[in-house]
Design a protein that fits this description.
- The protein is mainly α.
- Helix content is 72%, strand content 0%.
- It has one domain: MetI-like (MetI-like fold).
Length: 281
């Protein structure tokens, strides 16, 4: 994606109210995660700050969980886990997927067939189920969650990049570069990659939000983040036993998770529309 096109796309995104709202929530999340020690009113793992399941109010803005830990502090620190998982997961999938997709699409042949068969094998399993199997083999901790999700999401990037490379390879400017004797690396760097990065960036935004949900689901099932580390999925798992007497607790955590993923998807939707040449706004 050329620089002028990228700048124009970002300007178009900035004119969309949903993108602005989503971006504001994402920025708040980044600030909360970065400044967690300053913003959190209490230690997120300190227990017995008060009676268990104290409802929201003073002095505990979002209440206390069953062990007397401050819910607001755990949500703030939990944002770090969510952002870390999202960032590492998409970094693994983006890097490996981009490299394999470019090689498979540009050179084709046996490498292309081998890579695509591996992708088909991964796609044959439900994503969360495959992640669960990988974590069961590697061990339940946050590092292995990121590795497993990175493996699960990589084939999406491979297919997306491969399709873009196949289309770009047939363009006249690539044929002209080949005829002029340009090296493959130069052709890929100057003529192929800039024209396929747009859809990859959009995929990254959606994968980021999906990784946050996947981490929450895996932690909810007990094979993701382990206690006492604050994690939104782990908080939901702990809160499910108190739906009758403290429905506010899972409600608050669920709303935060929903709003964050919605905000990321709003930004992704706006990016997709801005990069679509058929878009009229």
């Amino acid at each position: 994606m050329p620089r002028s096109g990228a700048a124009r796309a970002w300007r178009r995104v900035g004119r969309r109210p949903p993108a602005l709202a989503g971006g504001a929530v994402v920025i708040l999340l980044l600030v909360a995660a970065s400044l967690a020690p300053l913003l959190a009113p209490h230690d997120p793992i300190e227990q017995a700050l008060g009676p268990g399941l104290t409802p929201p109010g003073r002095p505990f803005l979002l209440g206390l969980d069953s062990l007397g830990r401050d819910v607001a502090s755990r949500l703030i620190y939990g944002s770090r886990i969510s952002l870390l998982v999202g960032a590492i997961t998409v970094s693994i999938a983006f890097t490996v997927g981009l490299a394999l997709g470019v090689l498979a699409g540009y050179y084709g042949g046996q490498l292309d067939r081998l890579v695509m068969r591996a992708c088909d094998a991964v796609f044959s399993f439900p994503p969360v189920l495959l992640a669960m199997a990988l974590i069961a083999a590697l061990g339940p901790n946050i590092r292995n969650v990121m590795i497993a999700l990175g493996i699960v999401y990589t084939p999406r990037y491979i297919r997306l990049v491969r399709v873009g490379v196949l289309a770009a390879r047939e363009q006249e400017y690539v044929a002209a570069a080949v005829a002029a004797g340009a090296r493959d690396g130069r052709i890929l760097r100057l003529h192929v990659l800039p024209n396929i990065l747009g859809p990859v960036v959009v995929q990254t935004s959606f994968s980021f939000g999906e990784a946050i949900i996947a981490e929450a689901a895996l932690s909810f099932l007990g094979i993701g983040t382990q206690p006492p580390t604050p994690s939104w999925g782990l908080m939901l798992s702990e809160a499910r036993d108190y739906l009758a007497q403290a429905a506010w607790y899972p409600g608050i955590v669920g709303c935060v998770l929903f709003l964050v993923v919605l905000a990321i998807n709003l930004v992704g939707d706006s990016l997709r529309d801005a990069l679509d040449p058929r878009s009229t706004w």
